[in-house]
Specification:
This protein has about 90 residues and is mainly alpha-helical. The protein is about 50% helix and about 5% strand. α1 runs antiparallel to α2. The chain is elongated and about 50 Å long.
């Protein structure tokens, strides 16, 4: 599995957790009338899961796949922004 495929798996995991978090917040609001603690729990979980974002780096130069110069984007680069390596088609490390 390429680093790009692993990064896209992380994106799908984050989207799933955002959706489940929204459902959790709505359910708590519906049944208990206030969702302050539910929102805080979901925010902490999403931040904790998103720490994995820094693991996805170009195998050639080490540049993060989610960084575009100084901006962090929610989707990974297909081509490394530093060295130009095609991350979608690179061979997986054995």
């Amino acid at each position: 599995m390429t680093v790009y495929q692993r990064a896209m798996r992380h994106v799908r995991l984050m989207l799933l957790n955002v959706g489940l978090g929204a459902i959790f917040i709505i359910a708590v609001e519906r049944f208990y009338g206030h969702s302050t603690w539910a929102f805080a729990i979901v925010a902490v979980v999403l931040i904790a899961i998103n720490f994995r974002l820094w693991r996805y780096a170009c195998p050639r130069c080490g540049s993060n796949l989610f960084m575009r110069r100084v901006l962090i984007m929610p989707w990974p680069n297909r081509v490394c922004s530093q060295c130009g390596l095609d991350l979608k088609g690179e061979k997986p490390a054995a």
